[in-house]
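[Discussion] Sanity-checking designs against the backbone

I'm trying to build intuition for which residues belong where. Below is a structure token string of 788 positions. I'd appreciate it if someone posts a full sequence so I can compare it with mine line by line.
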């Protein structure tokens, strides 16, 4: 933006000079106007006549070209019809191309030069195109050696087209000639009016002389008013600007400011006057003071927001960031600098806030993954210079999801903040604590001399997390698994250090259990690769039909007759044949495959039990283990109902076995699903009963129909290795089930003395190797026949 301000006195001087120059110019124009007016009229008449004649000549020439070349092309066709010659045919085709080009040029010229109704030109061209079409047909038939009589008929048709073309062209020529005559007559008539026009012009010029003086006088008056209005507008603009505006001379002395400058710097207008603009800048920007003289010499304006951020100094000597623009202007015939200053304190605060949000976790205010990587890079650079080591701790909370689901996400957020505060209080200022996301934290411990010191830090972290005080009156049962990698032993860049610490954490969680730690070792790579291979194999197993079922028979202990089976999942894979379901079912749950596999187990089991019922005529039932993830499917109970309808089975022939892990997270959907299953007669068994402290609560809260005594308790009934506590537990569970009208099944029966004891305490059912190992469906048929 450029400003130009003039005083009234300087404006009047400029206006006087302009007025004198305008008088001289006006009189010169009036004198020359009379001299050239006659010449201009004569010249215009001559030009008009020449143009008219040339126009008629060009139109006539174009018409002649069209006639000539169409006629030549027609004659060549006549020769070709009467004297057929293949070589001559090619020559005529070449000549026709030349004729066509000439005709097209003539039509283009007619379109430009014909001054009459141009649709007439289009009409001629359409007739010409019809003639051209027939000509091409004749040539094509000559090539095919058709009869001469047919060719002559078409030639006669084309001759009629030529006549039409000539008739239209004659009209165009006549029209052009008529137009030329009219223009010539008009020009002649105009010449007669020449003297009258000249006299009128002289009268007009004389009148103009009288008007000019009056106009000049009004112009001067209006100019003065315009300058005054411009000055008032400039002052108003100066005052209304939201940015501070300061006018200073070459030496930096301030002569004028606006209201925004007063508010920004705290000086009044009287205090600003004679104040040097250098006073408004901190001393460290003294080099900018020297640039003021250069600015006047080179007139190089500075745009707002360009260059580095500057700082200004207010009356209280408080600094604040500003953006500045500089422009030159004129005031009373001397150059001044107009400085526009904008306070960007709020902008800088917002930028700092955005930078903070981009680098810090919004919940815990810890460095996020981006800043952690940057801190790791810095730690690597420092370690290389000092030849020291540093440690990276990958911390993953244990049981966080359980606490989050049990108490809500708000509680989970508070718990994450509490963990962050615990780590801040426990670690040093020079240590970096960051949150990777979810319940994962990362800690950088610099200057590690002995691994023992790192171990002590890790153990303190584990203890502090286990001892977290209640939040909002709710107790917290939580731990952590920590993986440790050391630079440069476990990696030489950020990705390697974090990845290896993560592998170590996973090893600690899997191998050592909860609230433990592990240092990274190279062997963990092999374990990880094996785990990933297992994941891939399981993803393909369902599609490749590698899963199958075996059935563990259930016997009535009193009669030792088969009353049903437990369906057990097996995986037919050569590489992972050593794995048991407990090894790969958690992976199926993690990869969201458990619902598909669970549907396969239910469908296959019900299909088998239907076949066995029809074969034996007995009301056999099948028990199926259900994953917690299956119970979270809102369509679970409805899908079971559909399967029962498909196989025409009563709900009592199916029993679903649930673990405490399924029931530990109460929900309305779980309650509804279990209630729906009980309505259609499906049994609900609590598996591994007695292995967790809260089992009795589930008997009260859920519609359980049977309980299963874990084989670890049944194994205590052994004359060679008798365990009195386990025997008491088995007796208590069986008695409890009888009191609550629940059916009781003992698992893992292998010895005859176990059968005798269970019979004495009235246990209902049993299963185990004493009766039978798990069998395939084919072997089950043999067993059923034998049992019958």
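Best answer:
Here's mine. Compare freely.
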């Amino acid at each position: 933006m450029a400003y130009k301000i003039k005083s009234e006195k300087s404006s009047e001087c400029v206006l006087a000079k302009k007025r004198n120059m305008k008088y001289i110019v006006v009189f010169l124009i009036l004198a020359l106007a009379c001299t050239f007016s006659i010449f201009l009229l004569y010249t215009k008449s001559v030009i008009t006549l020449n143009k008219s004649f040339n126009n008629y000549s060009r139109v006539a020439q174009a018409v002649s070209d069209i006639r000539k070349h169409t006629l030549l092309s027609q004659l060549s066709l006549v020769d070709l019809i009467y004297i057929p010659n293949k070589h001559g045919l090619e020559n005529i085709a070449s000549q026709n191309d030349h004729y066509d080009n000439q005709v097209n040029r003539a039509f283009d010229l007619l379109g430009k030069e014909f001054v009459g109704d141009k649709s007439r030109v289009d009409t001629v061209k359409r007739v010409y195109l019809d003639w051209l079409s027939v000509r091409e047909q004749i040539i094509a038939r000559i090539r095919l050696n058709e009869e001469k009589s047919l060719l002559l008929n078409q030639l006669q048709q084309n001759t009629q087209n030529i006549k039409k073309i000539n008739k239209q062209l004659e009209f165009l020529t006549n029209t052009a000639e008529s137009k030329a005559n009219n223009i010539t007559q008009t020009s002649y008539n105009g010449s007669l009016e020449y003297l009258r026009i000249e006299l009128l012009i002289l009268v007009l010029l004389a009148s103009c002389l009288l008007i000019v003086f009056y106009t000049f006088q009004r112009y001067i008056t209006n100019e003065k008013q315009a300058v005054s209005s411009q000055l008032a507008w400039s002052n108003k603009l100066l005052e209304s600007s939201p940015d501070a505006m300061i006018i200073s001379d070459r030496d930096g002395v301030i002569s004028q400011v606006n209201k925004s400058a007063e508010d920004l710097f705290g000086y009044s207008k009287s205090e600003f006057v004679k104040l040097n603009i250098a006073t408004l800048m901190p001393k460290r920007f003294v080099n900018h003071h020297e640039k003021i003289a250069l600015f006047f010499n080179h007139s190089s304006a500075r745009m707002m927001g360009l260059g580095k951020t500057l700082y200004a100094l207010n009356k209280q000597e408080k600094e604040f960031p500003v953006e500045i623009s500089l422009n030159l202007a004129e005031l009373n015939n001397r150059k001044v600098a107009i400085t526009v200053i904008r306070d960007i304190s709020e902008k800088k605060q917002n930028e700092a806030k955005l930078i903070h949000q981009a680098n810090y976790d919004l919940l815990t205010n810890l460095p996020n993954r981006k800043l952690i990587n940057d801190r790791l890079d810095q730690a690597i650079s420092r370690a290389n210079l000092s030849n020291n080591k540093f440690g990276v701790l990958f911390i993953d909370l244990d049981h966080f999801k359980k606490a989050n689901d049990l108490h809500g996400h708000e509680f989970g957020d508070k718990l994450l903040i509490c963990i962050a505060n615990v780590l801040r209080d426990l670690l040093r200022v020079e240590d970096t604590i960051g949150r990777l996301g979810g319940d994962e934290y990362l800690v950088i411990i610099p200057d590690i001399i002995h691994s023992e010191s790192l171990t002590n830090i890790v153990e303190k972290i584990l203890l502090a997390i286990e001892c977290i005080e209640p939040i909002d009156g709710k107790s917290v049962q939580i731990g952590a698994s920590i993986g440790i990698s050391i630079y440069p032993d476990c990696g030489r860049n950020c990705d390697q250090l974090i990845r290896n610490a993560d592998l170590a954490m996973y090893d600690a969680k899997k191998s050592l259990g909860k609230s433990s730690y592990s240092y990274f070792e190279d062997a963990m790579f092999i374990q990880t690769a094996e785990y990933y291979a297992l994941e891939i194999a399981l993803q393909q197993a369902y599609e490749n039909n590698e899963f199958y079922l075996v059935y563990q028979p259930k016997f009535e202990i009193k009669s030792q007759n088969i009353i049903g089976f437990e369906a057990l999942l097996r995986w037919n894979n050569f590489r992972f044949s050593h794995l048991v379901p407990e090894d790969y079912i958690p992976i199926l749950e993690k990869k969201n495959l458990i619902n598909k596999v669970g549907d396969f187990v239910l469908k296959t089991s019900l299909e088998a039990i239907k076949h066995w019922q029809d074969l034996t005529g007995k009301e056999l039932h099948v028990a199926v283990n259900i994953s917690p993830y299956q119970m979270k499917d809102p369509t679970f109970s409805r899908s079971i109902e559909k399967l029962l309808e498909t196989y025409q089975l009563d709900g009592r022939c199916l029993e679903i076995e649930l673990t405490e892990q399924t029931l530990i997270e109460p929900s309305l959907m779980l309650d509804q699903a279990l209630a729906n299953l009980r309505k259609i007669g499906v049994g609900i068994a609590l598996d591994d009963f007695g292995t967790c402290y809260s089992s009795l609560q589930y008997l009260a809260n859920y519609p359980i129909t049977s309980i299963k005594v874990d084989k670890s308790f049944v194994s205590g009934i052994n004359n060679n290795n008798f365990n009195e506590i386990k025997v008491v537990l088995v007796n208590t569970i069986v008695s409890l089930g009888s009191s609550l009208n629940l059916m009781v099944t003992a698992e893992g029966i292998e010895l005859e003395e176990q059968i005798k004891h269970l019979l004495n305490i009235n246990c209902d059912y049993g299963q185990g190797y004493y009766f039978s190992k798990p069998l395939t469906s084919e072997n089950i048929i043999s067993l059923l026949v034998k049992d019958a």
